[in-house]
Fold this sequence. Notes:
single chain; disordered N terminus; six-stranded mixed beta sheet; alpha/beta; 11 helices
Amino acid sequence: MGRVSFFAAxxxxxxxxSAVSCSHxxxxxxxxxxxxxxxxxxxxxxxxxxxxxxxxxxxxSYIKVKKAKPAMWKVTDTKTxxxxxxxxxxxxxxxxxxxxxxxxxxxxxxxxxxxIESDFSAAPDPQQLQEYMNHTIYNDGTTVKDHISKETYExxxxxxxxxxxxxxxxxGYSANGWASQVNGASIQRVENLVMENIDSKYxxxxxxxxxxxxxxxxxxxxxxxxxACSDELSDFMISDTVRRAKDIRGFTSNLAYQYDCWARGxxxxxxxxxxxxxxxxxxxxxxxxxxxxxxxxxxxxxxxxLEEYLGSxxxxxxxxxxxxxxxxxxxxxxxxxxxxxxxxxx
Length: 346
């Protein structure tokens, strides 16, 4: 697949992925390395040697939780006895991800169907697909250079060119598209990052087992998320990702930290309220709007849809991004507020 086409295929996944970076200070114990490091949530790594020049890095060398025990919830309607299970997932895997613990597979076996965020296995509506593609490019005669600063554009272009991701047609991509592309290019530099999502694994398994597969969202949600990210916020995300990814060791170790949080069930450490905290204060309203559309509104809609599925009487195994459970406005909290019994299974 060509570099430009890669963006179209990856953009929806990267929208969620690009935000995965915590901003508080993280200290990493590199007992097996001769280089002492301190990693910040934005992926910066300072080394005593001062040598950060490296093209790629292996995520497995930073992972500390070798046996994943991710957070999973059992939801029960105490009035009817109907049940479902919800598993929070990361959008990538490592050599330590599979096999998942027994309690996850046992929950899957009890269920008659699987629910994932977006089921794109069926052909999308052509009109909706065209609308989605129209939101990834500019159709008004402008280019990305009219929407982000010259400094950010030049830095991103230099970075993407260095790794053979840039060509002139990309100037027609939206600012949000550039943010996704820069992040995608950085992710490709992480060795042994397995782009086999847990949800796709269970979707395939469900199909083989003759179980029902349902989705919670369609392309229209991704369009709303793209529209919610202002040019100014996209500009910051682009420049900040380029800055972080220049130190690939810091970028990689930060992904490993996030993986470790997920693998030990520490979901609140992945709360998106922590993301991009080094932004300037004049972006606070932009980021609040972005979070409201990209996360909190989606959580409400997903909780309503899951309530509908729970009321059907069928037992579903729900597999969605872990950040939809983080913080105090997660899907588990919303279902609890609706009166359902929500129990953490570990």
